[in-house]
Design brief:
The chain is an alpha/beta fold and 296 residues long. The chain folds into 3 domains: 82 residues, Winged helix-like DNA-binding domain superfamily/Winged helix DNA-binding domain (Arc Repressor Mutant, subunit A); 96 residues, 3-Layer(aba) Sandwich (D-Maltodextrin-Binding Protein, domain 2), CATH 3.40.190.10; 103 residues, 3-Layer(aba) Sandwich (D-Maltodextrin-Binding Protein, domain 2), CATH 3.40.190. Helix content is 43%, strand content 22%. Strands 3, 4, 5, 6, 7, 8, 9, 10 and 11 form a 9-stranded mixed sheet that branches. Strand 7, helix 8 and strand 8 form a beta-alpha-beta unit. Helix 1 packs across helix 4 and helix 2 packs across helix 3. The radius of gyration is 27 Å and the shape is elongated. The N and C termini lie far apart (57 Å). The relative contact order is 0.14. The mean pLDDT is 87.
Amino acid sequence: MSEADPPSSHDLAAFVRTVEAGTVQGAADSLHLTQSAVTKRLQALERRLGAQLLERGRLGVTPTPAGERVYAEAKIALVALARVEESSRAKGGAVRAAASHTIGEFLLPTWLSAFRLAAPGVRPQVAIVNSVSAVEALREGAAEIAFVEDDTEQQDAFESLLVGEDAVVVVVAATHRWARRRGVRARELPTEPYAARESGSGTRAVADHALAERGVALTPAVEAASTESLKRIVRAGGFTLLSELAVAGELGAGELAVVPLADVTISRRLRALRGGRSSRGADRMWSWLRDHVALG
């Protein structure tokens, strides 16, 4: 065993809690694990150290002489690890975030650049996913802050900031027959191949909802989780529905065109969400978003 490959902190914590509780079940209860999970961790630690650490008896467990020595060192190691985590939080540390594709690709980079100057000790780590997955990451604790479209379900369970407004538009190639038109009506859309975002996308959900109110249901000819893929696909024909933010560069280069919908407005609000408990770094990022990005 070397410093580069120490025993697992989870195994050490299971051992320390077992010694202090006097039973494996007591340790399991304090760690919110099953008894079998704690037993596996204890066995893994004993195999790793090549020594029996606990004596199992009718009334519980007691440490062997080797276990007493390991217990003292394990307590020190766990306290040291806790101090490392606390030190990281005190300086800002990492902030786990999840963002929808539209926000993550076209708005968040600018926000993070400005935030880095205001809080250089905080290190945002962002996963770019669809809106449903971003909310799920927040709910499960995999993210401390999520950036999503306003129509995403389960938002009411979290604190919320309005961070932007957006329009979803019809996008075609600059050479498409619709490109020079002043607008198309919703009922015309099914006459062209539709390249759609994947199920779970906030962009697709808000577009489907708005069109359904006009009695229009679109069947995708192709689905893609990447905005860039959709923009490449429609260069060869058909149309897609994307955020205006996503096509600004292609519009300027004359590669794609936006066609107004004459009888439907597809708009949405963009929000930042956070749960009840977060790190100090996440608190700093949330305060910065509230002061510098939030609308109203």
